[in-house]
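For this section, I looked closely at a protein sequence along with its fold in token form, which I now present.
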Amino acid sequence: MTWMRLASLMLTIGLLLAPGPYSDAASSPPPPTLQVLRFYFPVGVAGPLAQKMAALVDEFNTSQKQISVEAIYTGDYTQTFQKALTAHLGGNPPDLALITTADVWSLRDAKAIMPLDAFIAEAGGRAFLDQYYEGFLGDVRYAGKIWGLPFQKSTPVFYWNKSIFQEVGLDPEKPPQDWAELVACASKAAIMEGGSTKRWGVAIPTDQWLMSAFILQNGGKVNNDLGTQTFLDSREAIDALQFLADLANKHRVMPPKRLFGDSAQDFVTGQTAMMYNSPGSLTFVRNSAKFPFGVAPLPAGKKRVSPTGGGQLLLFDKVPTARKQAAWKFATWLTSKENSARWMAETGYIAVRKSATEVPVLAKYLVDVPQALILFEAVKYAQPEAPATHDGRQIAQLMTVALEQALAGKATPEAVLKDAQSKAVQILAQFKK
């Protein structure tokens, strides 16, 4: 056999043994690595939300094979923030978490979370953001960057008992439109016996969120855009707190202290004629009230405005790039128009996507629960949740304590707010350097 025939034979054998373009080796690249994500989700607002979120997460996990999300239920919003920050400082942060506005600044300052602008640019930039309500985007826009996607959002709304309105001679289809009408309606609806109040005219939860609403309605501001200064002792803030204190102590139509759950319970049992509360209470009220009720935007002060509330999905920075990309995919899936619609229909929280009302499940819900339509009207008056400052959790606590003291009659609104402002100045001083 000549060397040329031998070479030809070896070449033929080599070609027969080599994998061809259609072989299994060429058509089967190694499977992608499964990205396992940890998602911190608060459940303090309502226990059943954990079950609803678990169903959503399971649905996402079974819809594809590249990402597996573990929903870790972490208590209320405060506990969720604390656990997320502790995990970050310990070098083992979650991949994403649902966090309130007051804590976004603190997580930014701790360099725990990442801006989402690069992801947003790839998703369409301004066209992508325009799918969300602008009032909700204000809670995640800081220093020219977007730090989260809105989800489970709300703005306080007004509930009234139409049966009580009719009983006391008020128009059951006309809620109070401003502060003066609120006092008038509450005074008519309240029942006083033997020097004590048997039925409250209005219940307003003792919370910084609603105190902020009254300050904003009175033309005031809680903080500056840089998050380095508060205006708690402004004339607008003092007068707003005085109005609240008068409802409790002068007019005696409002209980001096109630939480959101207390207020909702008082409302459905007929112990109060009206209440300020979250859209998250709508499902409870709908299932529990034995009377017709209405829902409306908050009565106006000098202007009609209310702060946003609820949470936003934040991505944590100290995780591998592949997991960041997976967390973004899950966050956009969770806030899609389909899931925004589903979340509102199941919980009462406001759908964050404008197009969510096109989804059949939400369209049906709005027919069945016409009171929920007003939530989209309320969003038109929404401003970012306050306080939006560095160390916002401490500032919020100062506001809540001041509110509690004024409603309890322990000190004047001016005195408690001057004290709160003095303490806020000390807290924020380090961030002005």
About this structure: The two ends are 89 Å apart (CA to CA). The first helix runs from residue 3 to 17. The chain has a mean pLDDT of 90. Residues 57 and 63 are 10 Å apart (CA to CA).
